[in-house]
Amino acid sequence: MSSATSTSPGISQLLDDRYRVEEPIARGGMATVHRGHDERLDRVVALKIMHPHLAMDEDFRRRFGREARSAARLAHRNVVGVFDQGEDEDRIYLAMELVEGRTLRARIVEQERLTPRESLAITEQVLEALVAAHRAGIVHRDIKPENILIGHDEIVKVADFGLARAIGSNNSSASATLLGTVAYISPEVVTRGHADERSDLYSLGVVLFEMLTGRQPFVGEQPVHIAFQHVHEDIPAPSTLVSGIPRELDSLVTWAAARVVEQRPASATELLRAVRELSATLPAAVLDARPVVLEDTDTAGVPRMTTSLDEVASELEHGPRAFPAALLADDAAVGAEAAAGADASSGAAAGAAESDTPATAGAEDDETAEEPPRVVVLRAPRARHGRHLPEGTRRRSRPMAWLATLSLIAALGAGAWSGGDWYLNTGPGADRTIPLVTGTTLADAEAALTSADLTVRTEERFDDTVPAGHVISSSPGTGTTVKKGADVQVVVSKGEQTFPVPELVGSEVEDARAAVEELGLELVEADPEYSETVPEGEIISQAASADALPAGGEVTVVVSQGRQPITVPNQTGNSGSAAREALEGAGFQVTSGQAHSGSVPRGAVISQSPASGTLFRGDTVHIVTSLGPEMVEVPDVFRQPEAEAKQKLEAAGFAVSVVHDKGDPVFGLVYEQSASAGEQLEKGSTVTIKVF
């Protein structure tokens, strides 16, 4: 390995003998980013090298590898590509796409405030990245200007998918990372530590607020003060801090960053649709006007994007009501739709203003009107799948919509009654305009249609972008003129179609894969593990984010590698007690025997079976310990014939040496033996006899 052992690699050193480290680009709370060069593929890369305190955490290493693999599967033009992940001694790193440009943070610092056109364009591209990521089951968890990169070609790329999850809430560094990005953290992460797709939308709503106003919505001396505001305060409308922000854009920001999760867009797709519609419908002069800071702005007392019924009623007071000609357009039915659909289409704050031209609908005498009637102006951004304001706001503003509807009906009715056209306006032959119900709850849709004297028929359908219980579409569509009592077919979302996750534990991995894929899900194998009870190739455990998953959802399983082989340590020559302790500590059962040995000390292991190789936990190893040498009593062979004496000594276990020191023996009898009769000698030792 050619890399150094220091925690911060020097210029021109290699990681894994492949990635050459060049000059540093940026440094953050988790890592330092270097420009690098892939020597194998000859391409420029960005090398994100994690700080040493993270690399020392084995749990982080495991999570980091898993999240990096998930991020590497995410291929999209608005996502910074992950090429490789690896470890080199005490460093772990990512090799990523190098984006030539700068961060959104740098652009905000330079320009202070971005125009609505720039802000929406950047938001649109970030949402395209989030749509792709969320469909792949990946939540970013750390959307902030530092992680949004803008190339020289103005293509926006989102970086660091999955790294926030890899750090984990139980890591000591997680707190620092959390506090470092607390300005963009969603309330549910603060209170429950839980993040999902809509948490990313909240963070993006805060980023959009900052692009428009040049500041974050909540500030404080300590990070905990900022987190407290996220949990307990609504994000203010950008127009309360800067000029030039239309109400529609205010609504978009407060919708995306609603405190209550359920009041945010149901998905990144829904928010993306609203952003595109706003970019296409706002006037060019509004889109290109750079916001200007208002004097004496303070978010502590910023009015929120809701207005109570009491406030509206006090403004309306009593008497004639009229609507501006712009709202009525060329067709009174269009105006009726706007009024009746105000509850369903927006929930934006309704205001009262003086009309330039007094309206007389419902007044008995034009000449006696002492003051011009007030006008209720409904300013509501229109989106195919809902409003830019949170659901909760929409429900709170319903009474205003009904007041506006009643006022409009009164204004239109007064003019029609005098002509005697009761039958064509309120009688059985009256025309009705289908109100906007798309995106509303079924209860709200039924109330709006029933109040318009229309009959509601419902049909349910799965939809992965419209929340369950909300209207996907109506037939006839919004704005269509029908007769009173006509049937309106409303298609209601059953939510995203999900499939039950089958129980896979104990199944063969290929059988499990077939069962999961048959349901439209995907089987993902985590790092395999050894198991003493689950056979090789069978599933030990499974994990899924829910009991049911949408099509394409991932079911992660751990597959057994079978029993873990254990190397048998050779204990020959060690003491019997030490040998037993070592073998049992390795997981083996130990049996033992004893034998005499002239070469192995008493109590030491003479032999072991098996003496090497591998066994499984619980298998048996047999050892033989030494009793020391065997001692034998020397027999008495004095004055015995040579042959008989030799036979007797050998039978006792001795080796015999015969000496004829007086020439050829005359009598052939033993007259001397080297060991006395009855003496204990080691079996196998030599006894010398002398014969004459």
Compact description:
The protein is α+β, with helices and mostly antiparallel strands.
What are the salient characteristics of this protein?
31% helix, single chain, 692 residues, 23 helices, alpha+beta, 3-stranded antiparallel β-sheet, 33 strands, 6-stranded antiparallel β-sheet
SSE blueprint:
Layout: E1 14-15, E2 19-27, E3 31-38, E4 43-50, H1 52-55, H2 58-72, E5 82-88, E6 91-96, E7 101-103, H3 104-111, H4 116-135, E8 148-151, E9 156-158, H5 163-167, H6 172-180, H7 187-192, H8 197-213, H9 223-232, E10 242-243, H10 247-256, H11 268-281, H12 284-287, E11 292-293, H13 309-316, H14 325-328, H15 332-340, H16 342-345, E12 351-354, E13 374-377, H17 391-396, H18 398-417, H19 422-425, E14 431-433, H20 442-451, E15 455-461, E16 471-475, E17 481-483, E18 487-493, E19 498-500, H21 509-518, E20 522-525, E21 539-543, E22 548-550, E23 554-559, E24 565-567, H22 576-585, E25 589-595, E26 605-609, E27 614-616, E28 620-626, E29 631-633, H23 642-651, E30 655-659, E31 670-673, E32 680-682, E33 686-691
Parallel strand pairs: 15-18, 20-23, 25-28, 30-33
Antiparallel strand pairs: 1-2, 2-3, 3-4, 4-6, 5-6, 7-8, 8-9, 10-11, 12-13, 14-17, 16-18, 19-22, 21-23, 24-27, 26-28, 29-32, 31-33
Helix pairs in contact: 4-8, 4-11, 8-10, 10-11, 15-18
